[in-house]
């Protein structure tokens, strides 16, 4: 029997010793393959070392779906969405999803809904940004004006994909800085950055930093003033990656979507509060007028001729199937019940967090089901020490500094997702109390008690 090699570059094996007498290399393909059960078990056991999804409070991404949805997704995992001629029913389901979302976001029902499934909101944002750039450039060229210096205006709190879009597609990003107690884009602070080269303004429906919804109507009103003063017609794109599946069901009176005339495109992540596994996103336009034909390609080598406007060509169908399952399984009432329950739990958690003497919340109760807090100046420990201690109990909670101009503020954020029950919240609060007691005693301060209130969850 060959001796098993001990090295950092070798994956050691114990349970499979009855099948194999050598470890396999980590970063090179082994000379001989493994039995299927051994290969499965080897990978399965390594993945078990990762954190528990039920204790991951950092991510917005869904970690649970119903077994029936998983079965449908497994059945369709081998279907390539790009092959429209071979799989027309998958394409039809994508079309249905686009129309469902367009109506949810109050697009004109008399116009043909225009949109597409994407690999998360990142691809959706790239496509929406390109559409704004192409439309702006075409108008400039028709007027005989320079079109080589486009810019886009947005809060510095945007997700990193907007930085990527600007860099990849040669658009100047003009960031509106934030202020203490002002953690989202304001129309007043955006106004000075707008000029004839602005392709659009980005408004976020649910900031990843604080959970806040930016005021789309106020931004639109400001752009109306710009139009009256300068003649510039500046559109809005709404990044609804997180809030696009929350606001329509919880904050029903909020006007942020295609009811606002300057909103020309919207992106939303199905794998966040759309309740689908990663990665699925959606991009929608008010009408075909806002998607330039130059950006659409036509191919015929998979059968019939088909249009394509995506950064990825071959794409999985399973996540679209999972999204459609949720739409018809839950309906308006189902999504409303789930999102209201998430908000109730987030509100309960926020009220409990606010009872802790060292904490000050910055998240809003009328936004995403997210709780964000910072430490008060006299706190004997930092948010980084707190989250590090909580990791010992398995909880994954991010701690981070806020963007430029308020980078001296560090916060913790908890994302309330469907799996995060009231019982788990109380378990977290108990572990948080133990952690706070440890950290305060470590620093020679008196401990802080936490008493749970009987907050009603409807």
Describe the structure.
This protein has 458 residues and is of the alpha/beta class. 34% of the residues lie in helices and 14% in strands. It has 10 helices and 15 strands. The chain has helices at residues 36-47, 67-75, 88-104, 120-142, 160-168, 187-190, 216-230, 318-354, 383-391, 422-442, and strands at 10-11, 24-25, 114-118, 151-155, 172-176, 198-204, 236-239, 263-269, 281-285, 297-299, 306-308, 359-361, 370-375, 399-401, 410-415. A 7-stranded mixed β-sheet has the order 3-9-8-7-6-4-5, sandwiched between helices. Helix 2 (67-75) packs antiparallel against helix 8 and helix 3 runs parallel beside helix 8. It is globular and about 65 Å long. The termini are far apart.
Task: Describe the secondary-structure layout.
Layout: E1 10-11, E2 24-25, H1 36-47, H2 67-75, H3 88-104, E3 114-118, H4 120-142, E4 151-155, H5 160-168, E5 172-176, H6 187-190, E6 198-204, H7 216-230, E7 236-239, E8 263-269, E9 281-285, E10 297-299, E11 306-308, H8 318-354, E12 359-361, E13 370-375, H9 383-391, E14 399-401, E15 410-415, H10 422-442
Parallel strand pairs: 4-5, 4-6, 6-7, 7-8
Antiparallel strand pairs: 1-2, 3-9, 8-9, 10-11, 12-13, 13-15, 14-15
In short:
By secondary structure, the protein is an alpha/beta fold.
Strand arrangement across the biggest beta sheet:
3-9-8-7-6-4-5
DSSP helical segment count: 10
Total beta strand runs: 15
Shape: globular
Return the structural class. alpha/beta
Could you give the distance between the termini? Answer: 64 Å
Please trace the helix and strand order, writing H or E for each element: EEHHHEHEHEHEHEEEEEHEEHEEH
